[in-house]
Amino acid sequence: MSRKRNIWRGLTTLTASLLTVSVAAGPVVDSYRTDIDKFLGTKSSAMVTDSTDEDLYTYKSDYSSTTELLDSIEDLGERMSEEGTVLLKNENNALPLTKDETQKLSLLGFSSYYPVQGGDMGSSLNENEGTDADTVDFVEALDAKGFKINEDLQKLYKSLESEFKTEVNMWGNIMEYYHITAPATDGVFASKEPSQEKMDSVDSQWKESMDDYNVMLVTIGRSSTENGTYLPGVDGVDASQNLNQTDPLGLSDDERDLINAAVEAKENNGGKVIVMLNNANAMEIDEIKNNDGVDAIMEVGLPGGYGFYGVADILSGEANPSGHLTDTYAVTNANSPAAQNFGNYEWTNADPAVNINAEEVEAEGIYTGYKYYETRYADTVLGQGNADATVGSSTGKAWDYDDEVSYPFGYGLSYTTFEQTLKSVDVDLSDRTVTAEVEVKNTGDVAGKDVVQLYTSVPYTDYDVENKVEKSAVQLLDYEKTDMIEPGESQTVTITADAQDMASWDSTCSNEAGTTGNWILDNGTYYFTVGNGAHEAVNNVLAAQDQDVEGNKDNVQTWELGDFDSSSFAVTLNGTPVENQLQDADLNNWMEDTVTYLSRNDWEGTWPETYKDLTATDEMISTMADDYSDIEANGDPSSVTFGADNGMTLANMKGVEDITDERWSTLMDQLTLEECLIRTGLGGTSTKVIESITSPEAIQNDGPNGFNSYPLGQYANSNASTGDPCVIAEDDPNRDYKMGVMAVETVIGQTFSKQLAEEWGKAVGNYSLWANTAIWWGVGTNLHRTPYNARNHEYFSEDAVLTAGQGAAIIKAGHEYGVLIAPKHLAFNDTEINRTGIAEFMTEQAARENELRGTQSCIEDANALAVMTTYNRVGCVTSNAHTGLLLNILHKEWGFKGLMSEDFIQDPAYTKIHMAVHNGVTMTCNTGDNTMAAVEAVWPYWSVENASQSEELLTDLKQAMLYQNYALANSNAMDGMSTSTHIEKLNTWYDNLITGLRIGFGVLTVLCAAMYLLGLKKKEQ
Amino acid sequence: MTEKKKMGAGLVLSVITVLVTVAGLVLYMMNCKTNYFVKTTGTDNTIVACLAVAAILEIVMIIVSVKMGAKPVLDIIPVACGVLTAYALIAFVGSRIAAIGSIMTFENNAQNMADLKGAIIGMIVCAVALIFTIISSFFKVVKD
């Protein structure tokens, strides 16, 4: 009897425990429903629409099938690299190859066979097989284009495959990479190029094999990754390798020896040596440039899944290169002023509990990239500002441009030659434009495209010195790419630039708001010129100033401004007066006289020191630790309406672009306060359904190389009866296609082509329609502050104007297809080191003229309806909580109206939700089920009771929801929806399973308990 | 010798269950204090209470059983312990899922990985505690 009692007790425990598991799993499943559905390919809800004759699909694809869609992406990928590959050196017309030479290719360097085609994380290449647009690597592309490669070398490198492998352990899931990888944020770079000895040991005849394949192409690769970094100088290199490598972005002896081996072989076989750079972070290549044995250098970036087709076309001459560098290629990257403060600088009083970890002082001010190199060069020519001092010199001698820069920003060669003539420049401040006409003539023998780069040089005056306003000696004002120009033909290119890009931010200048901080134009002479890069441009300007340099003064136009101007840009396009908003980003605001910012008035005296081992003051600690959890009673909360029964749905507002339309207010009144609190608090990887207004779930996607989060068919409509013109059948071979295939943003930038950027926006828009994914975090508008940020591949350039031009073109084009394309990350995500918590310090002038200028046009001109904020702090305040940045600049000055998500922040306190909502953040990344209990479990203060006492918060909540739903209403997320649309919850198989388990275990528990009790009763009897 | 004879296999299993449950509780609390989780999830008092009560109930069952014999009323305790431990386990896992996704990707660094490793060990120990709770419930703490 006792034995039975034990068994029934045990079985009752077992079944009751399993019943508990099945019951408790419910809320967990609800919390991650979007991601579970993504993983399992299930759907938990459906928007059901009554049949109607009305066309509910506002946005139309340009394609009638997935095959057409994928073909267009593949074609664009090829052309992106044709125009985004930069030819840096081409001695003796080594390129293009003759037909015969294409049959004699020796590929050297393991990156030829294992190239870097995307980032290791973020913009990773999606390799597609079995689709209508399978991705290819370099060898496959060459093969497809009819090249013939040295198979002995191919075998050699393939036999060494295991030596190239890098394993990344993702908790049992071992990720294997065979291309070179970038270091983690706490790692160093290790070269994997095989040594000559290693190659000899595998095949002692490998050099001889190149006699018959004497076109020797050496690929040097450097990878990029999110959440990774290169560190400047030897600190960033694995010293144990002992490869004489002085910088992770410089060459190792094994790479050096390989190039030299090719050069030596050339002496015997009479061939040619081409070096192909497979990188997104500007490398140190001066020794390759100066190696007379190297005939050609081309920079192909990380070209994605189809870009190597374009590279092959460049090699064969099928395409004529027209790419230009988006970054300065310096001799020694670590010698730039920005690099003096790039690293891991932890506070001495760091407090991990509140994400107080590190700081980074951008003491270089505005002088990043070419703005430093070309300005310092100009000042050495002009003999001012101690520019020829030794600080920052690579030689230890007086600073000399030729010793510091290998290839300047904007530089690139073609197989033909062009002559550009700046015909006219018209400055119209009332219209805020600078209009230039440039005649471009093809003076060579083959057809090609050219890039017109319009530069300006603005006055640097005593006023600037006195008020600490810095001026770059030359800056890109705008750019355009020509059409294909036949030899001997000309094209006149008209550029209409934004005149505000000439203006400088003066934090001391009075303004229309009655405070300080304003855009100014100094009185004096403004120079305009064109050139193949910033260096040629500055030389033209210097020549026009009668300096003895190799410049073309005839290609310079001037404009005189008689009086100091602080009014032309004192209000923004939407009429908002500008004023200082980012003074708290200056460390001197917190710790007086700590930072000396670099000034061209005295390069030597203001050269940046490294700001490390800093101790945050109590005030700074208090600011950084503040979670803004206090919700104070204010105003008249009862004046804010919730839960009204106005009979509207979001579909009533489909395509209503006027956000002041009173119907928006009527619709928003239907929201319940609980919905507002839940939806601002718990988001995750999508917007969620809002039942009171029938707002749909919109899926978020990363990242800049295409929709790479989900396969094409994941959320696609397969029901042809819906009237959806973009239905994908269940048996469509392209359903599993993933779009993370485009060249990285650096290559898109190198095209200097707004047309190609626009085509990319269209491709994204079309894909969005077919994939039914409306949100794309796909335009990285952070700048390449230094070459060392391993995430530079997700950003276009070191220059803001190029960034803005390419980013705005993509966003604007995407609008036509209803896709919400977001610039990210706002702002100053300048390093991946300690990114959750790092305090970025800078001057407001640097902030506004560099990185913010890269985003501003995306909002003002392209009308972006989505933005992502950053992990980092702006000064001591997290970006979410920074009212100056998000509310006053983004929303008020620039007029942003749309959904805004934080980056993938998992720390609720760091989200600063109270301030985030105040500043217009509409989505956060914490997850939880659709209840107030779930929200309050994360933020106990984010409650109905607390919110109900603050009119300000209630208003902010509704405003955030308005912004988000305004964006959705003007996107393809509304396609297929009408006012009859309602939400139906669907039971997935796993919902049914859980329900079944609950019932089953419930019954069994009762049964076992009953049997137990029955046994006891029998025993008693 | 007489006392020893009265002890059942369940006693040993129950003692192990107590130890493992306490270990799970300690590991959970320690994990909640790590850099990553102290900020992201904090401490869920419900989990602490469930594991603590489960451990206390097991101890009570052992003591009362040894002193008073295997009273039927005590049989509710393993059932309650199973329910409490099962709930704690699921809540523990649920609170770490987002972190697993984030740390394995966006926030992958040595410190966070160490914190995540601690979480996974804690979850495994809690799962083991549940298994022991269930197994021990099939055995008598003391023989009749």
From TrEMBL, chain B:
UniProt-recorded name of the protein: Uncharacterized protein
Keyword terms, alphabetized: Membrane, Transmembrane, Transmembrane helix
Residue ranges of the TM segments: 7-30, 46-64, 76-99, 119-139
